[in-house]
Give the backbone structure.
Amino acid sequence: MKLTNNSNVSLNMAVWLAFDEYTHIADNNYISVTGLLKPIKAIILSRRVVNNEPSDILDFVASRTGTALHSASENAWLNGNYKKSLHKLGYAEDYIDRITVNPSSVAGDDIPVFLERRTIKEIHSYKVGGQFDVVISGEIRDIKSVKAFSYMKGDDKDYILQMSIYKWLNQSIITGDVGYIDMIITDWKAHEAASNPNYPRTAVVEKVVQLMSIEETEAWLSNRLNSIHSLVQSDEVNIPSCTTAELWQDATKYKYYSKLDSKRATKVFDNITEANQMLIDKGSKGYVKTVEGMVRRCNYCNGKDICQQYKGYVTQGLV
């Protein structure tokens, strides 16, 4: 892949951003766990794109930051580093001695810790693979860096699916029925935590989710892969459009303007009924403007350049 540095990022940062640690698997039948969570249309169109255009290194800030976080977490467990940390935290020596990192076997009262293990399994002519973050004593933990808004939104569907598939892939290692999401809130503010009961209490929080059963997970995978297979050769018009939820589209707003020439809305509503009621209450003076939410996910889709749905959003000014 050719890269550009159009913003003249420093040599130090440019080398970091250009360095790719991800394991790329060149197999048309391979699909990653995170890839499966994308919309069907995004999965199929992305596979049709041959991108020979150079990418700019600033496009990789988010992914490289995420990789750095996971690498640091892994390193904290390796080479005996965890022992120093646990001593500082006051853990008993006999507890520390029971911990085994990436063991070949587990016995007795061992506390096994498995890190960043990649597993690939075949199902319906596809190879599904993924690399979990951490599994401690049979319980999977996934590390996420998120905004406070994402935490409060509370949509755990993708987290549940991702960790359930990891369990399906690693049934001898992941034996727990729940998954743990270790969230780092990148924009955490102490004053917000003090005033908003729904705001995360600290900058690092744990969320617990119920995992799907092995049977439920395999049924979901079968349905997903069958859908992909049935549509992979279809014209775009026959591929289901990405839904509002899949697009991470902001909610539609309804703005009431008191005068026809007003540049600023008097009030903004979440539903049209309340907006129209205000218009009635004001003697039908002014007007209500519907403002559709911005579409967020298209910017992260490799197939957007050949997607008519995306081009429509561009025309509407929604991306």
About this structure: The mean pLDDT is 93. The domain at 23-45+57-236 is CATH 3.90.320 (Lambda Exonuclease; Chain A).
